[in-house]
Automatic annotation (TrEMBL):
SUPFAM superfamilies xrefs: PLP-dependent transferases
The organism's taxonomic lineage, starting at the top: Bacteria, Pseudomonadati, Pseudomonadota, Alphaproteobacteria, Acetobacterales
Designated name of the protein: Beta-alanine--pyruvate transaminase
CDD domains: OAT_like (cd00610)
Similarity comment: family membership: Belongs to the class-III pyridoxal-phosphate-dependent aminotransferase family.
Amino acid sequence: MNEMNVPRPNNLDAYWMPFSDNRYFKSNPRLLARAEGMFYHTADGQEILDGTAGLWCCNAGHGRREIKEAIQQQAAILDYAPTFQLGHPIAFEAAARIAELTPEGMDRIFFTNSGSESADTALKIALAYHRARGESSRVRLIGRERGYHGVGFGGMSVGGIGGNRKQFGALLPYVDHLPHTHGIEANLFARGLPEHGAERADALEALVALHGAETIAAVMVEPVAGSTGVLVPPRGYLERLRAICDKHGILLIFDEVITGFGRIGTNFGAERLGVTPDIMTMAKGLTNAAVPMGAVAVKNAVYDAVVDNAPAGIELFHGYTYSGHPLAAAAAIATMELHRAEDLPGRARAIEPLWQEATHSLKGLPNVVDIRDFGLIAGIELAPRPGKPGQRGTEVFRRCFDKGVLVRVTGDIIALSPPLIIEKPHVDRLYGTLADAIRAEAA
């Protein structure tokens, strides 16, 4: 693309940026203007290696012709159609394609527009399920400390990141949290699944004893927690959580917005980790981020309980104007075809050993206090500067960007999640630039 065709805003004031230091950014803007393959390009033409797949979402790389053409063709045929008491063929096709990838027996798909909407939808379905079965006392929702499930009031309530909650006062009632698995000393610098900490799942038994199983509707966790700084589940932890949920009739929800669509080397984290939830959320990689879209997959038994036990008429009073939007559905179908044709989960598994070695090569650098990895995800935790938490991580992020590499920072943790098309030269450049930046911020 000719750089002359890239738009250059002359006023940054109007846009209130999400999750951003607006005051700093608008004095020191870093603008991404176009993207292709493994790279972004700034408005002034600088090449930026994408070490984060956008925001954990462009798993097939940027600017994929197949997805672009699918969106263009669909826009020319049907730009929009409502899905309340009506339908259009491509939404049904997209749902069927997703159901081909989800774990066996999870064949019912509800469309949303984002991971946040998927989280709230999953929680509402869990409540509706228990009510439909005559257990309306099950209203309590259990999340996990440091969990992230988007920014809707439901997902934010069940989530456990303090900074996302403290500005907004009272959240949903009847919510409790399991302890996180971060910071177990024996797990520091673990490769893949850490060995210690499965017993932390037993905290669910304590919540059952406290509140009563008959009050608990669902437990919601990320198979691998991403936004909080890459927390990999201890070996056996999710199996233990599944068993306790089964014992007490509690639904288990996996938030697979990050771990879905190949990120950890399988279609979904449930497959790689060997634990099947009752409800599963997704977004991000579903359309390769080309059009906003999310979805919730449920076990057939959950769908049947809600639908078959409802009186005549609408069974679930929930949905969005853009649920199953034609352009998003077209993008999803094209994306899933790319994943199948190019075996993107397989590519991730193939390069995972190289990725892991490169990740752990940072051990021993100044202020690196822990490293975590699983699939094509990595978290490099830095010691904070005294009295200035987050400053060191932010400066590493800025140094990397200025040297042509995009990483993500959450506090003093550097999180990496590249497109699944990454190759060895990209890995070398990514980690070489990151290592230099960490050394530069040693003081």
